[in-house]
Amino acid sequence: MRILKEAVLSKEDSCPYLRDKQWKQEYFAAAELDTEQFQSFLDQRFRRFGAVFFRPCCPDCRKCLPIRVDVAQFKASRSQRKVLRKNQDTRVVFRHLEPRRELYDIYVSHSRERFNQDCSEDEFLRNFYTPVVPSFQSEYYIGGRLAGFGILDQSSTGLSSVYYCYDPEFSEYSPGTFSVLEEIRETGKRGLDFYYLGYYIAESPKMAYKGRFHPYELLLRGQWSPPETGSR
Q1: Is residue 35 classed exposed, middle or buried when 0-12, 13-18 and 19+ CB atoms within 10 A define those classes?
Q2: Which CATH class, in words, describes the domain spanning 76-198?
Q3: pLDDT tens digits, residue range 19-51?
């Protein structure tokens, strides 16, 4: 592992997930992590975006809980099975990292539609194609067209979703839910135990969907636990 920037604390800012809350992070930059080193950071509540590893350290709130799905025990719900049927002709490919213009175009369309944000191609490459940990990408094709893609990291126990985006034209296919279902399946195919979805906040509309994939565990006080024993 190579540390690019030592850990520092950010300034407080408005929380993107909960109204009337302040958000503060601890973050550092690193590269050349192996799966065990990356697992250690996941188990310490860190997430990765580009070369930056970060975790919330908000002064008055501890509601951002890392969440992971137990792949061997996972059962799709009725609504999730409906999404699978809707996507029965969707072709999914998992492959090594390979930036392409069509991926960038989808990312720009998704960012504008969902977040009213723009991103340069340099930012796109820096955020998703910086070699930091063992990573790969998923691609989703509907009617022969690229409809969405995801970036995933691999730790010693599972796969961790970094980002997923899709062409808004294909929203009717519930691409976000379908991508999670496919990436859970891919985790099992690789002989890994857990699928990491990032942070979960039950009260946040942006985060609540993550609690619909059962069974899951939450990381609280350094221990991964089922929600009935560790969510509060």
Answers
A1: middle
A2: alpha beta
A3: 889 999 999 999 999 999 999 999 999 999 999
